[in-house]
Amino acid sequence: MERLENQIVQLLQNKDIRPTQQRIEIMKYLMEHRVHPTADMIYTALKKNMPTFSKTTVYNTLKLLQEKGALAALATVEDQVRYDSNLVPHGHFKCTQCGTLYDLEIPEGFPKQTTIDGHRVFEYQILAKGLCRHCHMQELS
Ligand SMILES: [Zn+2]
Ligand SMILES: [Zn+2]
C-alpha cells in the first residue's frame, strides 16, 4: 500500500471509522486536491475510475467522515458545502471572479477561544472574498 493510503487508514482508525475502500478513496481525493471540492465534484472525479460509485455513497461517506471529525465541511455564502481534509484551523479566501477557494492563514494573535456577548466561541469560520492573485494579475495586464 502507498504511504498516503497508510496514513489515511491510520487517521480513519483513530477516528473510529472502518477504513473501507470507498472511504479511503474519498479521503485520498481530498488530500490530493486541496481545492475544497463539493460533493458533486468529488463524485464526478471518482466515478471515472470507479464506475460502481454512487452519488448516495459519496454523500453518505462525506457526512460520516465529517461527523467523526476526519473532514471539515465549510459553508460558503452560496450555501454550497465544500469539503476540506485540512484540519489545522485556517481561514478561506474566495475569488469572486474564478470561484477558487484558497486556504488562508489566520493572522497571528487572532483569538482562538473567547467569549463574545456571553457566547463561548470554539472556532471561527473565516471567509474572505475578493480577487485572487491570478485574477488580479490578469486585470492589471
Ligand atoms: Zn480568481
Ligand atoms: Zn481549507
Walkthrough of the structure:
By secondary structure, the chain is of the alpha+beta class. It has 2 domains: 3-84, Arc Repressor Mutant, subunit A (Orthogonal Bundle); 91-140. The protein is 38% helix and 19% strand. It is built from 5 helices and 7 strands. The chain has helices at 3-14, 21-32, 39-47, 55-67, 133-140, and strands spanning 72-75, 81-84, 91-95, 101-104, 114-116, 119-121, 127-130. It has a 3-stranded mixed beta sheet with strand order 4-3-7, with no helix packed on it. Strand 1 (72-75) and strand 2 (81-84) form a beta hairpin. It is globular and about 45 Å long. It starts with a helix and ends with a helix. The mean pLDDT is 89. It binds zinc ion (2 copies). One zinc ion binds next to helix 5. One zinc ion binds at residues 36, 84, 86, 90, 92, 103.
Write the layout of secondary structure elements.
Elements (H helix, E strand, L loop, with lengths): L2 H12 L6 H12 L6 H9 L7 H13 L4 E4 L5 E4 L6 E5 L5 E4 L9 E3 L2 E3 L5 E4 L2 H8 L1
Helix pairs in contact: 3-4
The structure holds zinc ion (2 copies).
The site of one zinc ion has 7 residues, from helix 5.
Spatial extent as radius of gyration: 17 Å
Low-confidence stretches: none
Annotated CATH topology of the largest domain: Arc Repressor Mutant, subunit A
What about the largest sheet? 3 strands, mixed
